[in-house]
Write a structure and sequence with these properties.
The protein is of the alpha/beta class. The chain has 2 domains: 130 residues, Aspartate Aminotransferase, domain 1; 231 residues, Type I PLP-dependent aspartate aminotransferase-like (Major domain) (Aspartate Aminotransferase, domain 2). The protein has 14 helices and 13 strands. The strands form 3 sheets. A 7-stranded mixed beta sheet has the order 2-8-7-6-5-3-4, sandwiched between helices. Strands 9-10-13-12 form a 4-stranded antiparallel beta sheet, with helices on one face. Helix 4 runs parallel beside helix 11, helix 8 runs parallel beside helix 9 and helix 12 runs parallel beside helix 14. The chain is globular.
Length: 377
């Protein structure tokens, strides 16, 4: 049985952000929630905790150890759970704690637009100076532009998304090594969000940033929340390079105290027991990307979509459709909700981000609604 098989009647009973933001007649393919049932081992772990009345504060290192085991099995990465990993809250709050530890108000933080909207907010919203080094036209990192920016603007931190949200780009080992070398050369702290690390297409090699030469002082933030659809259970991890363990002493007070006990148990169970499940998710999402590409080519040929191997998100260029605001048009006229491109970067108002972690039937219906909304314009 496929993982992405839940129907609309069941999904509309959910009370999460994805399903409660818009009217019931809208198909929501926007925020990064997955339309899946809870992984059975996670449910069993939580039910056992409920039976014990085990709802207190977190203890132990089962979550860091589960991640270290996954890293070794998936990426041949030997990371020391005792010295290199600490629990945190959700990914963005953990990133904020790192930023507060390694930068001061007014310092520059580099991002690569288009990029996940909270990257903008965590920098500019906390009195840091946002420095944009856009991805190249084909969605890749631009080491030459990064070096020019590092040398001229002297930022203190570089916030990298890997795999990249929203484009789906999976950075290569060579790209990451070039970035790490630049950060070392110019004294820039490399902070990497790898929450989508397990969400890559079959046959694609994901490279953890901390495994490349020069990243010994880099910091990575991750969580099982995205890949196993556990955003409702707040639990993240700080992972540092072997020469950056001093960071743990510099984090703000309570930075490592915001993990929920049940959340840590749920995430550890997913990392330990959900590896075959996530492999199947990757295979199904790869099929969904091809489905979307085919549907757009047939029904909405002006919408340009380049299939990329990372995440379950599709980045679609609607420029040729001649719409003032594509996301608003498709919501108002097609009753389908996508994430507006301008949320990811001001130069991308003609783009939409599409969440493909849903059933093929819902994806098909969404594109049919797009096509219908364009007829007669």
């Amino acid at each position: 049985m496929t993982i992405f098989s839940l129907g609309l009647d069941e999904l509309r009973q959910r009370r999460s952000l994805k399903w409660q933001t818009f009217d019931p007649d809208v198909l929501p393919l926007w925020v990064a929630e997955m339309d899946v049932a809870m992984l059975a081992p996670v449910r069993e772990e939580l039910e056992a905790a409920f039976d014990r009345g085990d709802t207190g504060y977190p203890a132990g290192t089962s979550y860091p150890e589960a991640f270290a085991d996954l890293a070794a099995a998936s990426w041949d990465w030997q990371v020391d759970a005792a010295t290199q990993i600490r629990r945190g809250g959700d990914v963005m709050n953990s990133i904020l704690c790192v930023i507060e530890a390694v930068t001061d108000p007014g310092d520059g933080i580099v991002i690569n637009t288009p990029v996940y909207p909270p990257f903008h907010q965590v920098a500019s919203g906390y009195r840091r100076r946002l420095v944009d080094v856009p991805l190249t036209a084909d969605g890749r990192l631009d080491p030459a532009a990064l070096e020019e920016t590092f040398s001229s603007q002297r930022p203190k931190a570089y916030l990298l998304c890997s795999p990249h949200n929203p484009t789906g780009t999976v950075h290569t080992a060579e790209e990451l090594a070039a970035v790490a070398a630049l950060c070392e050369r110019y004294g820039v702290t490399l902070i990497v969000d790898e929450i989508h690390a397990c969400l890559v297409d079959p046959g694609t090699t994901f490279v953890p940033a901390l495994t490349v030469p020069g990243a010994e002082r880099a910091v990575m933030i991750t969580s099982a929340g995205k890949a196993w659809n556990l955003a409702g259970f707040k639990a993240g991890l700080y992972v540092v390079g072997p020469e950056a363990t001093d960071l743990f002493d510099r984090l703000p007070p309570l930075a490592s105290q915001s993990t929920g006990h049940l959340a840590a148990m749920a995430h550890a169970a997913a990392l330990r027991l959900g590896r075959e499940w996530i492999d199947q998710v990757g295979a199904e999402i790869a099929d969904h990307k091809e489905l979307l590409a085919g549907l757009l080519a047939s029904l909405v040929p002006g919408a340009e979509y380049v299939v990329r191997p990372g995440t379950y998100l599709a980045w679609v260029d609607c420029t040729a459709l001649g719409l003032d605001e594509p996301a608003r048009h498709f919501l108002d006229s097609g009753r389908v909700a996508f994430s507006p491109g301008h949320n990811f970067g001001s130069e991308h108002r003609q783009w939409v981000r599409v969440n493909l972690a849903t059933s093929p039937a819902i994806i098909t219906q969404a594109v049919e609604r797009m096509a219908s909304s364009l007829r007669g314009r």
